[in-house]
Design brief:
Keywords: Membrane, Transmembrane, Transmembrane helix. By secondary structure, the chain is mainly α. Helix content is 94%, strand content 0%. Helix 1 packs parallel to helix 3 and helix 2 packs antiparallel against helix 3. The model has no long low-confidence stretch (mean pLDDT 64).
């Protein structure tokens, strides 16, 4: 279940990348790409973490990454105005 959440997070970050591209915000595009790559790394490591450390850690990592992404997105929106 934690891996499904991480998969959805990566898809969400890829959509954020597409939105930033359409809006032409280059700083946001680079940030979304970096978060997407980080999300992909967490997703790939998720299988190992799931076996070794349990579902709760994988879920915590996914939620933490989501919160970081939301905070940075809000910061970019505030900085753009």
């Amino acid at each position: 279940m934690g891996l499904l959440l991480l998969d959805q997070l990566v898809v969400g970050l890829q959509l954020a990348l597409l939105v930033r591209l359409v809006l032409g915000l280059q700083a946001g595009l680079v940030l979304a790409l970096q978060l997407g790559l980080l999300g992909d790394l967490v997703l790939r490591l998720g299988g190992v973490l799931l076996v070794r450390l349990g579902r709760s850690l994988v879920l915590a990592l996914g939620l933490g990454l989501l919160l970081v992404g939301l905070r940075l997105d809000v910061g970019l929106r505030i900085g753009a105005h």
